[in-house]
Design brief:
Layout (H helix, E strand, L loop, with lengths): L1 H20 L4 H6 L13 E3 L4 H7 L4 E7 L4 H17 L10 E7 L6 H6 L7 E5 L1 H6 L11 E2 L8 H12 L7 H39 L8 H14 L3 H17 L25 H5 L22 H14 L7 H15 L3 H10 L3 H4 L3 H25 L21 E2 L8 E2 L1 H33 L17 H13 L2 H19 L1
Parallel strand pairs: 1-3, 2-3
Antiparallel strand pairs: 2-4, 4-5, 6-7
Helix pairs in contact: 4-7, 8-12, 8-17, 9-10, 9-13, 9-18, 10-18, 12-16, 12-17, 16-17
Bound molecules: flavin-adenine dinucleotide.
Length: about 525
């Protein structure tokens, strides 16, 4: 009897110990080997019931992979270094391929996570689930055959190579551990490009101010220019990366009714069809000339990253267009494309450039329907101009100091190019290009705006509250009237955009309530 009873008791005792020490587990898990240890260098994101939904909801990556494991399970311990190896490619500050896949993990041995593991019907360890981060954030599954939350087969979770191979197949990519170093170098170059963008915010402001001046000093300014001018300002009010340019544009919009009264233009009128026939300029445009679209000190005729001798204005304009393209909402994208075309058609004072641009972008009305298609359309158009200029240089046997390249060059973004190694023969990976454009013209510029705001705040403190508007000041408060202008412009940009915005706001509120 005792002989029979003792092993059972022992097992029970062990289970009790494991349960009690399970929470603090560090010393216990260490005794079980490295696999169970939570290493500080781990980059696989450790999630718990408390932060699972919110972390995945906020994840910038396009995909998420979650490993449900149990720190006591030997197979999980064996697999851990392999999972970490793959995670280092995609997660953390040194990731070779950031924002592609988020690799996360949940320890089902933690009592706090038990409901979470049940929610995903985890029956064995490790279980690897693959889905969009948002699908995981709010999802659950009842069987291993769930079509949305895909379970990675056991043989793929064998080692780092098999897991990366599965990811490559799933994404139709060829990420490798070997090319990661090359990619890291490219990431450093991207870092350089990002820093360049931080400086280019000044060029964007300068180009905006020059554009405003050029428009209002055009000798042939007529009432047919009013609508494209207003639409351009509306786009700036909502999406210009610089706060002071948003505020300045709002102020101009507020004054337009008095300074440049015109026929009422319905939101659905197409300004390319020339609905406004009158060629007579009405009103006092001089009043608008006295306003400053990006602060009093601009334009200064000074360029930071654009080269004056290389036509700083058109370089700054490209920056502005790209920055706008990654900021609009999907519902606004077609309107934004028309606004940019309208600007070039009416206000870009280079006949050849205008003609080429209008011709090559003629079909954009049908194809630009989202922010992604807008950003890629503009990127393609810019590259087409780059190519034409590069070809002209070859024909004219000119060797420019900054040769026109297909952008981004490989050293800046390796993953933007698939198949083909030379600069002449390759295929773009447009998903990666879009990620890159958003990083360069979106995130980096946000950093620029924040940094220039910090500079202003510092200078305010150091000069005993003598407020000096520095060149890079972005912290100008939007006046109440202008704020109303912004709100109106935001809605005026298109009824669809307005409805969409309201819907988004409602959804956000709902989510907060949940
Ligand atoms: C709408 C438009 C049409 C033009 N058409 C002509 C023309 O027909 N003939 C002509 O001689 N000039 C044209 N120009 C001017 C020309 O494109 C350049 O702006 C000018 O030669 C200055 O070149 P840059 O070397 O400073 O760099 P730019 O070409 O002005 O580029 C500025 C920066 O944008 C980034 N960049 C480059 N390519 C891309 C891309 N594809 N996507 C995103 N970012 C990119 C790079 O960081 C680059 O430094 C046009 C300009 C505009 C705005």
């Amino acid at each position: 009897m005792w002989v029979l009873w003792r092993p059972k008791k022992l097992v029970l005792f062990m289970v009790l110990l494991l349960t009690v020490y399970g929470h603090t587990g560090v010393s216990w898990s260490r005794s079980l080997g490295d696999g169970g240890k939570k290493d500080e260098k781990d980059v696989g994101l450790e999630l718990t019931m408390d932060n699972f939904n919110t972390s995945l909801w906020a994840a910038p990556a396009s995909w998420a992979l979650v490993e449900f494991y149990n720190r006591w399970c030997p197979a999980c311990q064996k697999f851990k270094p392999h999972y970490e190896k793959v995670a280092r490619l995609f997660n953390g500050p040194d990731a070779a391929y950031p924002d592609v896949v988020l690799l996360a993990k949940v320890d089902c041995a933690d009592e706090i996570n038990q409901k979470l593991c049940q929610r995903f019907s985890v029956l064995r360890w490790p279980t690897l689930l693959w889905a969009k981060p948002t699908a995981l954030a709010w999802g659950s599954r009842t069987s291993e055959q769930d079509p949305v939350l895909e379970q990675i087969p056991i043989k793929a979770a064998y080692n780092a190579n098999s897991l990366l191979e599965w990811i490559n197949k799933r994404l139709d990519r060829s990420y490798t551990f070997e090319s990661a170093n090359e990619q890291k170098q490219s990431a450093q170059t991207t870092g350089l490009a990002s820093r360049q963008m931080v400086a280019s915010i000044q060029d964007i402001e300068e180009a905006t101010a020059q554009a405003y001046e050029i428009i209002l000093t055009q000798k042939l300014l007529s009432s047919k220019h009013r609508t494209p001018f207003i639409r351009f300002l509306q786009l700036l009010v909502v999406h210009h990366p610089s706060k002071r340019c948003r505020a300045g544009s709002a102020e101009v919009l507020q004054n337009i009714k008095d300074a440049w009264p015109g026929e009422h233009v319905s939101e659905f009128d197409d300004h390319f069809t020339g609905i406004i026939q009158s060629e007579k300029l009405v009103g006092d445009v001089g009043a608008l000339k006295r306003l400053h679209v990006c602060g009093e000190k601009l334009p200064s005729k000074h360029w930071t990253t654009c080269k004056a001798e290389n036509n700083g204005y058109s370089c700054g304009l490209w920056y502005l267009f790209h920055a706008l393209s990654v900021r609009v909402d999907d519902a606004e994208s077609n309107g934004a494309m028309r606004t940019i075309r309208g600007f070039v058609e009416n206000f870009f004072l280079c006949d050849d450039c205008r003609e080429h641009f209008m011709k090559m972008s003629a079909s954009a009305a049908e194809t630009v329907t989202t922010r992604r298609t807008l950003a890629l359309w503009l990127w393609r158009a810019h590259n087409e101009v780059n190519k034409r200029l590069a070809d002209e240089d070859i024909v004219n046997k000119v060797q420019p100091s900054r040769p026109k390249l297909q952008w981004p060059p490989k050293r800046m973004c390796t993953s933007c190019r698939k198949h083909g190694d030379t600069d002449d023969e390759f295929e773009w990976d447009e998903d990666e290009v879009y990620i890159f454009l958003r990083k360069i013209y979106g995130d980096s510029l946000e950093v620029a705006v924040q940094e220039s705001t910090k500079i202003t705040t510092k200078s305010r403190h150091s000069e005993n509250d003598k407020v000096e508007e520095t060149l890079t000041n972005n912290s100008v408060a939007v006046p109440v009237g202008a704020a109303a202008g912004i709100a109106m412009a935001s809605c005026g940009f298109g009824v669809a955009a307005c409805c969409w915005r309201l819907q988004q706001k409602k959804r956000k509120q709902m989510r907060r309530r949940i």
